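Quick one, probably user error.
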């Protein structure tokens, strides 16, 4: 295909045309010279294509036809694109470009124009228009001093040459992006390669698509100076958002030379860039039910950027689950749903998928692939003991399908560890002991790293397990209601009950599991656990509701108790947050196995399924995760529509900082109905962790108060009040220092003693957006969006009032009563031990003074002048559960039915008798 003289003359005339309006020519342009001609056969006169096909499996091919190169893509039952390129590591074009880049900053820039002859020689039945293009790319780009794509990939399908049956010349008149500018940077960055590429693409099942190209040229179009930025984009609008994205559109900007692109910003962070000829940007990766502010700015080739456009606010749609749980469902149908979820987990590398592979094997699905994946995992090493427990489950559930060679890999894996007493956290200690016991029973000839095997391993680890069980039933489990670790310990106990031969061990483990279920049932309020939390790390570990839960003990509890609405998602695979990290290792699915022997007590199930709960309760835990004695006093106030729970710690001996000392949850059809308070800790994410030694909390019914005193770190002396911003709050307003909130089902009001500033952070924002000391890591981002009230002070305090929405006609009535009846005395908040005195909505006086977390409780938490007698708190003191501290008798009662657990004789008695 040879260009006619008239077309060539027209092309040269275009190149010599005056510069765009407003730009001044720095020098008189020389007649156009094709800089490509010295570097490649631009006219294909040798009969050999100068292009290389990037992938031989794409379906692409090329041939020379009448001194033009035909570039073709065939679908081959796939929709891969075929890309053809010629790369110049040396040559006249590269040298000319680098000569301009080497000139001093501020020197005139140089413009170049790409043009070539084009003809469509095969019209596909299914062409992919956006992927039929030409482009120029630079090596050693940074998109600041040197662009990656000076000529971007703009579709050729809109050009006259492509549409014409006779073809034609493609120039900047067709595609303005074909004129590009090289701006001097003083030689700080030079290009290492220049690449000219063409792409052709056919969708799956389509006939071939082909184009021929000829007379390839890049012409120097002269020098220009541009000192003005583009005009500000106007008319920014948003289309109808989905749950994960939105399309933005705006009116084009103008520039002295040419607008080369637009940058799109979400909440102040750049999230997209489009070419200067495009005024539409699709934005994806957003969170459901989340508000975002978008702006746009224009830029030119000289590095000038316009002012930011006026913002447009977008709230994404609510998530529509693809396969929610059956509602209301039954225990059987909900458990089956969890089992199916386990088999359909998101595929990842590593031990996180042990449950998925095992569940599929049990149901004889993808057998060969799953055996290979598990075998690979057994050939590795795990540094966290609960992963070994998961692999023991895999063997005991599906080991009958393992080959002899794979069984040998299993034996070798379990021989890599030493199963002895550990100075570790609760779940890791239990994981080590349970694995050791089952290794001794299952592989009696496997010798561990300490030289122990068989009955010796079983005896040692039975003693270790029972020591932990004894401590738990007399002192309470240390990692109570932990979204990540409670389920780990429970999985261990379940393994013993499922597979251990020792009946004494099984009985004691079963009784301990029963008490766990009774506590979960007590705290369950129609889909929400109302409790402070031990070892709750990160946003994903705090969120827990019918929209989404971690694959934790709350998910297992839900299978028996149900909720006021359908469960939409469970576990990492169902979480839409970009971070979506663990927060546990997804082992709850093992507990949905149809072959599971253990069943929770019927009375616990009855308590858990009870709706309309209304009570105040106290509980105590007398050990920390290391197994050392300490006191955690827990209070909860539960109403049918919401619940408030707090805790305070005394006689602390270890510096565990992973508690959630104040939790407020309410019924909602929106995600994340949770308000919580935290203190900054090191580089941990905002809203995570707490320092009980610095943060002292007390509660009386629906009211909680707290005081804070820094330990001296001026980068961590912050209190953070985390207000969810995903639709679970209907209205929020500021009145006389209070933040008053309508959730639809409850009202609450929060007030800080010291000044505070509002911030906003979404899962799409960098993890250190608000708390600048947070480590930059995907796993440190939030799971949901929050408005964060953040106060920095060495001493501080706060008040929280809550009420059922049915108690007041509206939020204004609640607010009026709050302002009329309450008062807060902050005159002592700057004392050496800060103190707050608060007169509550219910007419009580709460008086809290900062005290020592390592000491015994003293007269520092007062209600109407009387100290709270924390030492009189029972292990369980709820409407259904009773047990004194360190006592061996636990009682659960509903009406005239009761069950008594005797931990001296390890017996269970029922009244009336069963």
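Nope, works fine. Designed sequence:
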């Amino acid at each position: 295909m040879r260009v006619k003289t008239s077309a060539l003359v027209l092309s040269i005339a275009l190149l010599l045309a005056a510069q765009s309006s407003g730009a001044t020519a720095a020098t008189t342009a020389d007649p156009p010279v094709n800089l490509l001609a010295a570097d490649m056969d631009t006219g294909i006169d040798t009969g050999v294509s100068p292009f290389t096909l990037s992938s031989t499996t794409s379906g692409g091919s090329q041939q020379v036809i009448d001194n033009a190169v035909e570039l073709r893509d065939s679908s081959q039952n796939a929709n891969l694109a075929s890309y053809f390129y010629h790369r110049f590591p040396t040559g006249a074009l590269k040298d000319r470009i680098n000569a301009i880049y080497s000139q001093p900053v501020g020197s005139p820039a140089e413009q170049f124009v790409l043009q070539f002859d084009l003809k469509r020689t095969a019209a596909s039945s299914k062409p992919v228009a956006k992927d039929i293009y030409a482009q120029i790319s630079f090596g050693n780009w940074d998109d600041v001093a040197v662009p990656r794509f000076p000529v971007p990939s703009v579709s050729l399908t809109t050009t006259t040459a492509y549409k014409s049956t006779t073809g034609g010349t493609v120039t900047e008149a067709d595609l303005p992006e074909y004129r590009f500018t090289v701006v001097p940077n003083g030689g700080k960055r030079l290009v290492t390669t220049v690449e000219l590429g063409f792409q052709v693409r056919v969708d799956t099942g389509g006939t071939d698509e082909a184009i021929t190209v000829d007379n390839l040229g890049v012409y120097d179009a002269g020098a220009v100076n541009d000192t003005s930025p583009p005009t500000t984009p106007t008319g920014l609008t948003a289309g109808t958002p989905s749950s994960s994205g939105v399309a933005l559109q705006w009116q084009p900007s103008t520039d002295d030379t040419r607008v080369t692109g637009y940058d799109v910003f979400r909440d102040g962070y750049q999230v997209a860039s489009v070419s200067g000829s495009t005024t539409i940007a699709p934005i994806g990766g957003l969170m459901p039910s989340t508000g975002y502010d978008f702006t746009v700015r224009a830029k030119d080739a000289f590095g000038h950027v316009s002012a930011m456009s006026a913002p447009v606010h977008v709230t994404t749609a609510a998530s529509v689950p693809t396969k929610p749980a059956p509602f209301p469902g039954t225990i059987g149908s909900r458990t089956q749903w969890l089992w199916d979820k386990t088999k359909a987990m998101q595929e990842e590398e590593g031990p996180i998928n042990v449950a998925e592979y095992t569940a599929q094997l049990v149901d004889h699905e993808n057998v060969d692939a799953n055996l290979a994946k598990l075998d690979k995992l057994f050939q590795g090493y795990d540094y966290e003991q609960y992963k070994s427990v998961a692999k023991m489950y895999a063997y005991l559930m599906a080991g009958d399908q393992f080959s002899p060679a794979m069984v040998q890999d299993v034996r070798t894996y379990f021989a890599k560890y030493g199963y002895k007493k550990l100075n570790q956290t609760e779940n890791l200690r239990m994981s080590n002991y349970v694995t050791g016991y089952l290794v001794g029973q299952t592989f009696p000839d496997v010798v561990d790293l300490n030289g122990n095997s068989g009955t010796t391993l079983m005896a040692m680890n039975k003693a270790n397990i029972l020591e932990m069980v004894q401590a738990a039933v007399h002192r309470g489990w240390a990692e109570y209601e932990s979204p990540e670790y409670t389920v780990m310990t429970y999985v261990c106990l379940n393994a013993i009950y499922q597979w251990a031969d020792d009946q004494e061990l099984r009985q004691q483990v079963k009784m301990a599991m029963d008490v766990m279920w009774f506590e979960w049932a007590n705290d369950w309020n129609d889909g929400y656990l109302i409790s402070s939390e031990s070892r709750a790390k990160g946003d994903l570990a705090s969120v827990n509701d019918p929209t989404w839960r971690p694959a934790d003990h709350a998910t297992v509890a839900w299978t028996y108790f149900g909720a006021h609405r359908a469960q939409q998602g469970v576990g990492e695979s169902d979480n839409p947050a970009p971070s979506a990290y663990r927060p546990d290792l997804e082992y709850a699915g093992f507990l949905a196995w149809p072959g599971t022997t253990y069943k929770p007590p019927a009375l616990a199930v009855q308590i858990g399924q009870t709706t309309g709960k209304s009570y105040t309760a106290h509980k105590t835990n007398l050990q920390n995760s290391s197994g050392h004695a300490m006191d955690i006093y827990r209070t909860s106030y539960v109403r049918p529509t919401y619940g408030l729970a707090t805790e305070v710690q005394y006689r602390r001996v270890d510096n565990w900082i992973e508690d959630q000392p104040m939790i407020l949850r309410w019924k909602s059809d929106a995600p994340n109905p949770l308000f919580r308070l935290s203190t900054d800790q090191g580089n941990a994410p905002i809203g995570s962790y707490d320092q009980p030694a610095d943060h002292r909390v007390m509660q009386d019914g629906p009211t909680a108060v707290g005081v804070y005193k820094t330990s001296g770190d001026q980068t961590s002396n912050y209190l953070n009040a985390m207000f969810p911003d995903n639709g679970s709050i209907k209205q929020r307003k500021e009145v006389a220092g209070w933040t008053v909130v309508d959730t639809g089902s409850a009202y609450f009001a929060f007030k800080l003693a010291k000044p505070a500033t509002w911030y906003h952070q979404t899962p799409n924002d960098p993890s250190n957006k608000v708390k600048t000391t947070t480590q930059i890591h995907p796993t440190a981002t939030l799971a949901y969006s929050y408005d964060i009230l953040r106060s920095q002070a060495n001493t501080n305090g706060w008040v929280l009032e809550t009420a059922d929405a049915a108690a007041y006609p509206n939020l204004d009535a609640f607010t009026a009563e709050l302002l009329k009846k309450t008062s807060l005395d902050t005159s002592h908040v700057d004392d050496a031990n800060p103190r707050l005195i608060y007169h509550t909505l219910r007419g009580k006086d709460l008086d809290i003074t900062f005290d020592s977390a390592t000491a015994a409780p003293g007269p520092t938490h007062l209600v109407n002048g009387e100290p709270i007698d924390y030492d009189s708190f029972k292990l369980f003191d709820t409407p259904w559960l009773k047990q004194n501290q360190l006592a061996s008798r636990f009682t659960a009662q509903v009406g005239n039915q009761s069950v008594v657990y005797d931990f001296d004789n390890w017996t269970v008695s029922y009244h009336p008798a069963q």
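The longest strand covers residues 209-225.
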